[in-house]
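hi support,

uploading two proteins for the ticket. first:
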Amino acid sequence: MKLDDIDRNLLQLLQEDSKVSVKDLASKLGLTKTPVYDRVRRLEESGMIKKYVAVLEQSMLPSYMVIFCSVSLESQKLESIESFRDAVLKFPEVLECYLMGGANDFLLKLIVKDLNDYHLFSSGKLAALSNISKIQSSFVLHEIKNSTILPIY
């Protein structure tokens, strides 16, 4: 999908605050409400805008741990990769999962309540999957930056 400058600005504004009114968007973009509404609808229908979500304030939530896991499989055959992917999609602890090139096959971002929950997840769910060769974990001590805003070029 080809984006013009107005689309890029509109997407930037929506990423900053998806609850902003069409009236306010139109004012910021120098347009009337109808073309802004039409652009938003087009971006939604094309799939460029996947969904709208609430970003929660971490300090107001019960404490939890963020853990990054590098996972290596015994086999890198397509069926093994797809089997791992299908299993990981079912784990609510997994916030993000990436198929990687390089030393490890997958990188997972997890969220768990505490070390005991991580132990139960890593040994009871992750290591229990077939084809797992190695799991290496890193524990987040302090979050420096966490953004949901993608740069739009």
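and the second one:
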Amino acid sequence: MVGVSGLHLTLNGQTWFPRSVVIRGFVATAAYLQASLPGTYTGRVNYGPAELAAAAAFGADTLRFQVSQPSLDPQSPLYDAAYSASVTAAIKQARAAGFVVMISMQDETNSGETGFNPFATAETVRDWDALTATFGADRGVLFELYNEPRPAKSDANWQLWANGGTNTAANASDPVAVGMQPLVARLRGKGSQNVMVVDGLGIGRTLDGAPTIADPLGRVVYAVHPYQRGSADESNWDTDFGIPSTKMPVWADEWSAGFGSDIGLGSLTNYQVAVDLINYLRNHQIPLGGGAFDVPGVMTQTVPGWVPTDYDGSTPSSPVGNSGQLVHTLFITNYGRALTAADGL
């Protein structure tokens, strides 16, 4: 059973630092992935016992399933009953294999949506009502209520994030934002026993200024996605998640650091900032979640195969690779030591 005690997650009553990776192959329907995201489709068609065994060998004890908000909602034109059934079956298979599972609600282009809503909406609520009916009593399933709210941090946006209200963003298909506080209260009222995970603002970059979400069960965790986004600047880490981690339980539940990637190292010519980030998180007792395990080139080189990506062969003139080996080393040592650049090879 997963819980929260003070600033940390617990597993069966003991302090727990999860070792999670993303399963991205269920972020949209198979048809959408095949047509629009072939790398992710590779993950979808290879999900099964071999992949679950590979994730365990990688050191993961938790799988973060990205799921499509519109394709789960019977009121959406993108609803797909077969997709919904496949999500339920995949999660149950992972639980039967011994993994903790996080369900991460996605409402963006990758999930089949034509745009995105900056905050949770009534559609989010409908999906969580249904998921609570299926998984609400399973303390080994965590609910990440809304992936990467996009607005930048501000007092007004934090209030929308927490309590809901009218959303004035020009690209919002639903102008009414649902706050994390009423959503948590609603799901508790429907019997959910699960740990709730709430993402920070700025596409999940920051928890600076985040209001505390009240929960009668005391099972709320605050998530950041500390991607480098092409920058070696470490000066914001204290503000964005280090200082918040002294006040609330924080989980960096999605991260990778690929050269040439917009959300990774971009045009940087070395990966020292990736090593520094892992050590910073470890020193601040913030657990880490690796990125997609089932998409070639992120945590793993090939699918199937699932060998960790690394930075072997990377040079300043030809930077290549990603952070799979770093994350693998962190996991198999169970956060037991600081990492060095050599651990990324």
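thanks. also noticed: The domain at 2-344 is CATH 3.20.20.80 (TIM Barrel).
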